[in-house]
Specification:
- There is one protein chain.
- By secondary structure, the protein is mainly alpha-helical.
- The protein is 58% helix and 0% strand.
- The protein contains eight helices and no strands.
- Helix 7 crosses helix 8.
- The relative contact order is 0.05.
């Protein structure tokens, strides 16, 4: 993200240009930040910045503001401890509503299925649906 080099201006020329008197009283000044970024990351990042209408300067300023506010670098992925700490807990009312909805969506099995395996239930259903096949088989 070498902003100076992106514009094709050498570091020395940039320093000389910044020292020229302008005749205006300046209360604050901007500084140039130079950073080494892998070319592929820079290209991909610049594409995204362009899509969202932002500049590398805005990215760097946002990063500095984040570090100032949070006291740490931004993380690409939260740690497991952070995920656990953010885990949402339900209020008793939310738990009650969730339980009610689960009950409404639950399909109750008939009492006649009690104690039977899936294979037994399937065979019963097949005998009811295709009695002619099972009668011939037995006969």
């Amino acid at each position: 993200m070498e902003a100076v080099m992106e514009r094709g201006v050498s570091r020395e020329a940039s320093k000389k240009a910044s020292k020229k008197p302008t005749g205006k009283k300046v209360t604050t000044s901007d500084s140039v930040v130079t950073a080494r970024v892998p070319m592929e990351i820079r290209e991909q990042g610049n594409e995204v910045l362009k899509k969202i209408g932002a500049t590398p300067t805005e990215l760097i300023n946002a990063a500095y503001k984040y570090v100032i506010d949070q006291g740490e670098l931004p993380k690409a992925y939260p740690s497991l401890e952070e995920v656990a700490a953010r885990r949402r807990t339900l209020t008793p009312e939310q738990k009650r509503k969730l339980k009610e909805r689960a009950e409404e969506m639950t399909l109750r099995a008939p009492d006649s299925w009690e104690g039977k395996t899936f294979d037994q239930l399937r065979e019963e259903a097949m005998r009811e649906r295709y009695p002619e096949y099972y009668d011939e088989e037995r006969g």
